[in-house]
User: Fold D-alanine--D-alanine ligase from Arenimonas maotaiensis.
Amino acid sequence: MKTVHDPKRFGRVAVLMGGNSSEREVSLDSGRNVLAALQAQGVEAFAVDGIPALVEAIRAGGVDRVFNILHGGDGENGVLQGLLQAMDVPYTGPGVLGSALTLDKIRTKQVWIAAGLPTARFVRIPPGGDLAAAVRELGLPVFVKPSTEGSSVGVFRIAEESDLAPAVAFAADYAGELLAEQMLTGGEFTVGVLGDTALPSVRIVPAGDWYDYHAKYVADDTQYICPGLDGEDEDAIRALALAGFRAAGCDGWGRVDIMRHGDGRLMLMEVNTAPGMTSHSLVPKAAAQIGIDFPTVCWRVLESSLEGARR
Assistant:
């Protein structure tokens, strides 16, 4: 499974984690797991908390490549990627275009629509826009979510008019764009991507009404069914994930979230370019189904940084 066998080939690897986004704690958890896995395989890896500390380490000559596990914010919006390319430091994950695009759910969906790929219907809500009007235009039930946040931060499930008030209050204080998105009821899935391989799909079945922050990172009663589909349906969801990943300008590794409509149609939802690597995370769960253990996943992701010239 590995194409590189000597850990010295990677040099000094900065595992970038933490930072100051709303996903800081999840990133620290992911980073600790990745760091331990790489060190156990002989990689000269060390932790770096946030981009300013990384810049200092690079300027000091102590970094040969970066394993980016900085969730959200500048870790996934193209800022880090552009910085590292300017400093000629290889890194894991998609490049500037894929990272910048996919952190923005609205623009990603616009690209998918232009490419003829299926995605759930949505209405853009600009800063200061009328959230209630957007929800009514789309029709209940819907989700309302920030366009550039992750880990279900700021997501509201609106099944009836009485659910609107908390979302309206959030929108009043939120400086960014929001979107109201059609709620699909045929099942929630995610597909990890490693290079040119789509991993087995994972069907997510939360104990509650939906897959919120608690279900993702805290609860132990969320069910993860892998593979999530069978036969031709499983082939179709993996093919759609790869098509959506590539159409969004992504390479290296990532995760594509997909929902199924009540009539069975598959709909692309969003792309995560620095997926979680915690005990609850889905890329490791899917990889394990085809015999790739957690340390090997980390190794293979790091291998992709050796191909940085492709950008």
Notes: The chain has eleven helices and 13 strands. The domain at 102-118+184-289 is CATH 3.30.470.20 (D-amino Acid Aminotransferase; Chain A, domain 1).
